[in-house]
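Internal tracking record. Fields below are filled automatically when a chain is submitted to the structure queue. Please do not edit lines marked as system-generated. If the sequence contains nonstandard residues, flag them in the REMARKS field before resubmitting.
Queue: standard
Priority: normal
Entity type: single polypeptide chain
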Amino acid sequence: MMPYSKSRHQVRSAAILTAGYVAGAEIGFDRQNYLGVLVQFTKGSLTSLEVKIESSIDAGVTYGTQITETASGGVVSVDASEYVFDTSGSYWIVISPLLADSVKISVKGTGTLTGSSVAVSAVTGSV
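SYSTEM-GENERATED OUTPUT FOLLOWS
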């Protein structure tokens, strides 16, 4: 069994949100298979905060978005995953296992952007 290891990453310092997705600092993985994302959100006048997590298996050349699958009547529907928050607070998003070379986390606001803020940090590790 591999020894436990972890690394902390500052993805985005606290800043006002924009109406379009803005990516934070990319996170590189080296034999790590766990991602914990801490989202610290102040709603202000926003309707909601949306967080998108993308991963790459070719060192950041090509990114793919996480997906959500639903099945009904033998048909599987696939949609791009977004984490949506509509209340101020600190939230954890945990993805394990994760097999990737790098991860990119993007955020955007919906509605009136006044008074909004989000900071994103992450921890990677081997479990």
